[in-house]
Amino acid sequence: MKQEIIFNLPVKDVEQSTAFFTALGFRLNPQFSNPQAAFMDIVDGMHVMLAAEDFFQSLINKPVVQAREANEVVICLMCDSREEVDRLIAKASAGGARIPHPPEDHGFMYDQGFEDLDGHLWNLVWTA
Q1: Comparing 1-62 with 73-128, is the CATH topology the same?
Q2: Of the candidates 3, 17, 64, 81, which lies 20 to 30 Å from 36 by C-alpha distance?
Q3: pLDDT tens digits for 26-67?
């Protein structure tokens, strides 16, 4: 099995979501993108496909979860430092994300999360 992770998220506005995640440092991969979906490289081997809700719906045979109303998953990204967690949270907040709680410092672990423009939950974690 190839060591790659690609997850798909439904979004209301592909262009707006692409701009949001680009500001966080994700890279748009135009080879696998079109007006209905943006393929974003998070880090080597990890990617997210931001799919317009109607396109996403065409890929599945059940309702699309509205992430502002219910959650199916929390996406957790490991960061290199506490400062990286804080920097990314600041960028997410500046881009319109909701920050649901203050940072949590457990000594061995530091984390904070955000809700992206469509309500998907992301958690940023640094461990000692």
Answers
A1: yes
A2: 3
A3: 999 999 999 999 999 999 999 999 999 999 999 999 999 999
HSE value, Cβ hemisphere, 13 Å, CA-based, for 38: 19
* CATH T-level topology, domain 1-62: 2,3-Dihydroxybiphenyl 1,2-Dioxygenase; domain 1 (3.10.180)
Taking phi over 0 as left and psi of -120 to 50 as alpha, with beta for the rest, 119 belongs to left
Burial class of residue 28 (count of CB atoms within 10 Å of its CB; 0-12, 13-18, 19+): middle
pTM: 0.90
Residue type present at position 92: A
At CA 46, angle to CA 45 and CA 51, rounded to 5?
A: 135
- Bridge pairing between strands 5-11 and 46-52: parallel
